[in-house]
Amino acid sequence: QVQLVESGGGLVQAGGSLRLSCAASGLSFRSYTMGWFRQAPGKEREFTAYVSWNGVYTAYADSVKGRFTISRDNGKNTVYLQMNGLKFEDTAVYYCAARLGPGVASIHEYAYRGQGTQVTVSS
Q1: Sequence-separated (6 or more) residues with CB below 8 Å from residue 76
Q2: Alpha carbon distance 46, 24 (integer Å)
Q3: Tens digit of pLDDT for each residue in 58-111?
């Protein structure tokens, strides 16, 4: 059974930092492209970042570029999202997801998704 479990969310002041983690089990982690998505209240889930199976390729939404960094540790079956310079508008539930195949893709193309972790940024 595939499980993706996010952690590291919480309440932080604007300008602060958080690091999200997503621990994967039940799949051959090093074969999967990993992505982070987020969903703010009243909005659709949106792409945030992705990392290729080997960690070489990454891509970010324009809204987080230069502030967020995605990385992975295939030895620990874990993907990370380092979030710096947080803004009020980053408040959302953050989800990790896994898919086979390269490149950026919509959430619907990801075979597995976690339950999410809440990030709240106070202004």
Answers
A1: 23
A2: 21
A3: 999 999 999 999 999 999 999 999 999 999 999 999 999 999 988 888 889 999
